[in-house]
Amino acid sequence: xxxxIEDLEPSGIARIALPRFTDPDVIPLWIGEGDTITAEFIRxxxxxxxxxxxxxxxxxxxxAELRDAIKxxxxxxxxxxxxxxxISVPGSSxxxxxxxxxxxxxxxxxxxxVSPNWPNIENTLRATGADVxxxxxxxxxxxxxLDAQDIIAAVRADTHAIYINSPxxxxxxxxxxxxxxxxxxxxxxxxxxxxxxxxxxxxxxxRDVAPSLITLAGDDDPVIIVNGFSKAWAMTGWxxxxxxxxxxxxxxxxxxxxxxxxxAPSIMQFGGIAALxxxxxxxxxxxxxxxxxxxIVMEVLGRHPRVALPQPEGAFYAFPRVDGIGSSLAFxxxxxxxxxxxxxPGYTFGPDNDEHFRLCFAQSHGRLTEALGRIVACIDxxx
Length: 383
Ligand SMILES: Cc1ncc(COP(=O)(O)O)c(C=O)c1O
Description:
Layout: H1 3-6, H2 12-17, E1 27-28, H3 40-51, H4 64-78, E2 87-91, H5 93-104, E3 110-115, H6 119-127, E4 131-136, E5 138-140, E6 143-145, H7 148-154, E7 159-165, H8 177-190, E8 193-197, E9 223-228, E10 241-244, H9 250-260, H10 266-278, H11 280-300, E11 307-308, E12 317-318, E13 321-322, H12 328-339, E14 341-342, E15 344-345, E16 357-360, H13 365-381
Parallel strand pairs: 1-14, 3-4, 3-7, 7-8, 8-9
Antiparallel strand pairs: 2-10, 5-6, 9-10, 11-13, 12-16, 15-16
The structure holds pyridoxal-5'-phosphate.
């Protein structure tokens, strides 16, 4: 076993969730998905694909019709005219992040992660053999915030990749356009690959779409944008996402896609086409549901005297800090064992988060309200 792999630890999410993953007694707020089944028109498209015999290998960078649909969608949402050669569909968004990590870092190279961060990112970068460090968002005036200067200060001579995720899992922070401009300038100057994880681009509550590097980065820029179907269209189990990269990377992406997965599953790609073509109302419905859920969370946890919770601007997580929580893992274990609610322990989202926990609020409002009542009871019991 390579030492880099031997050293990887299961994420705190897997640690707490896997032993009781499908237990019907647990209200599961630990994983990044809701309780809404994928919409019927998307399921029907995939069923038709099976019946029509689309059961063969697909292109390693995705079916041409799917890439066309992605281009049409991105052009419409961002008001751009994207070069189709920059689009690849290697499998899930997670696969896109894996390929971006493989292309940019490895042994002897450093990757900088904007944290708090989803734990899979740290493991994916470490698995390449890269050295990893973090630059942390902090709470200022009750909002999550990060200065581009902090990122610039954290860059090292051996930094080859910066990972940023906005809207952010777990904080709900949305990166301002000006920060993206500064980051892009930095990465151009230092030839650092900027990996921009935009999977929550439509899960935003005060606008239609979050600021994206897609409107800023040209084909010459060292930028890889990762996005996908899991969140905006409620398609987590479909394992489908896309990458936008410089056209000159296309061959390398195709080669790596062959190595890792030989491309995205054929049948699922038809669901993706349907989602992009006919899914705008669905995106809006889900977003409205999540906005209501966020308000419920703020109403309960936002008012608790021992909880500090900046209002999430996007994504579907709350990342409260609880005074006197002790260990976040012990808190999550107690909440699970005694109250049958699953949350993710804060420690797993990068350094300095052990007073936090993360909950996913993409749940039906009744179930969420019940879970929040139990969470408050657990916090109060630890007073
Ligand atoms: C920040 C972030 N990036 C990427 C992903 C992976 O998305 P996918 O399901 O498309 O692999 C997730 C899933 O939770 C996520 O939270």
